[in-house]
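Problem: given the chain below (277 residues), write out its structure.
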Amino acid sequence: MPGNPTRMLALYGKGGIGKSTVASNLSAVFARKGLKVLHVGCDPKHDSTLSLLEGGPVRTVIRQLSSEIRSPADIVMQGRFGLHCIECGGPEPGVGCGGRGVSKMFEVLDDLDLVASGGYDVAVFDVLGDVVCGGFAAPLKQGRAELVYIVVSEGVMALFAANNIARAMKRFASNGIALGGLIVNQRDETTNVAGMERFAAELSTRVVALVPRAPEVRRAEVMKRPVVDLAPDAPVSRVFEELAAAVLADGAAGHPIPAPIDEARFDDFIRDTFGTP
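Solution.
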């Protein structure tokens, strides 16, 4: 893979759904395979890279803008396994717009020509998906992501957010982005897998992975390490390994344009699919 154009991946999903856990573990797997990886957190909470920085301080692009950004070294943080990490950050609570911060970060990345000049094999963008406003939609409307994966559970608000993300992707499909599929972060062993597959089919996509609820993940979060590093032999780590291999083997070609569920029938679909015990 080295020497080829950078693979641009974006993970979207509702806040609190486990999106950053999935994104950071994928980045860790890619880096452990010997790939040069850029991991970019696009959330004002700037918590996407916590497990990748070995406890080091987090410098955000938005905070660095208060002084001056002259080179990639001003915003890139060194992480585990040779990873390069960037956190967008955001304004103080109650002041400014987090989405505008994401747009500003991409302006900085362009000014530095960071993605191309860094010689990366893979760039992973971890993007907040509760609301797909102009800033948070930047990887979509600017064609920044070759492939998008939506992290979801069977919670109604997580499904609602996933449907909205699919709507945004349909709007910007001409930019060359493609929906690679849904990554289901299971809340427990009773997840309605058939229902999730039906939901994916409604969006004209597929379920690419089922991430089990595992105590190793909670322990890894406390230890601020990727679970694939802390517990490499755990079943959940094997899921991340398999997901990483599937993502690397995937491409934008061949994926249909997302077909989000119409708002008028969304509630009926969710009730009919997930409302029956």
